[in-house]
Amino acid sequence: MKALLCKAFGPADTLVLEDLPSPEPKKNEVLIEVQAAGVNFPDTLIIEGKYQFKPPFPFAPGGEVAGVVKAVGEKVSHLRAGDRVMALTGWGGFAEEVAVPAYNVLPVPKSMDLTTAAAFGMTYGTSMHALKQRANLQPGETLLVLGASGGVGLAAVEIGKAMGAKVIAAASSAEKLEVARNAGADELINYSEQSLKDEVKKLTGGQGVDVIYDPVGGALFEEAFRSIGWNGRFLVVGFAAGGGIPALPANLPLLKGASLVGVFWGSFAQRQPQDNAANFQQLFAWHAEGKLKPLVSQTFPLERGGEAIDALGQRKAVGKLVVQVRQGA
Ligand SMILES: NC(=O)c1ccc[n+]([C@@H]2O[C@H](COP(=O)([O-])OP(=O)(O)OC[C@H]3O[C@@H](n4cnc5c(N)ncnc54)[C@H](OP(=O)(O)O)[C@@H]3O)[C@@H](O)[C@H]2O)c1
To answer: Domain Enoyl reductase (ER) spans what residues (predicted)?
Structure first.
């Protein structure tokens, strides 16, 4: 089977397509014939040796896939060969086959094609957990989403609307904001040109927002926190802007009676699998009803998977990029 391999830490153009023997599923694993692999921010870090996990060389990047079960280990009973599935892989997804622990594999409903499924789990799973379990977002509340045209950001816009919130999308360009508007955002802020705090003040009649979803970090972090309202919840999702982990003066949450709330979806899925499964039932139902329309803005063949990672790292992507490992997904 073919895999796009990282053989030494470096930029995306150093990845090489090679033939490897097919993996054998261990007793608790599922072997998947990969149709498509979603591209996520950690892929930009893992190939550079900057991620929390450093897999042994050679490894393929690719943290999530969708495809068809080829074989299962002897202890796997809820899946069988031929099932359409999506899975979190951590890495190894940019390959024709990957073996994954069964607890990281979910059946894909008939209503969803496999390219969409490859772009769905990480982003919608994260944003649903963030807005439901961590923020307890209520209908009628105001949600501010930073990086609102990116993978997790755009999912947060759609889920926020599905939960009945008023959504303010914030992003770095007019083109990106248009993507967020098409996903249902009620109001738009271009934080390259406008003051986030002043615009939020105008849009909320000086009240501030109830919930802030922040996958960007950097200089926006504190500025965004200053636009939170009384009883607000600020979701710490990620640090795509780089430049170190931001810090917050502790008087800011005190003055607003506000909370700084961490979001770690991978850990939640492992520790609370039933809650995560319930989240996905709701997400699949919303998708089937047309309330969620995941945006796959571009697909790449396996040999050009490095270009997809590069586009994400260069802040050029909108919605999701997908590596189409096999045709016909
Ligand atoms: N906590 C969790 O459980 C969890 C789960 C999944 C992902 N994450 C994290 O969430 C973040 C976003 O992931 P993603 O897959 O949605 O990424 P993405 O699609 O690339 O979106 C990130 C957004 O961040 C903004 N950004 C600002 N500065 C940037 C820079 N220097 N480089 C790239 N983007 C920049 C961009 O929007 P603008 O240009 O509009 O600013 C971009 O749309 C990452 O830090 C990821 O690790 C966390």
So the answer is: 10-323
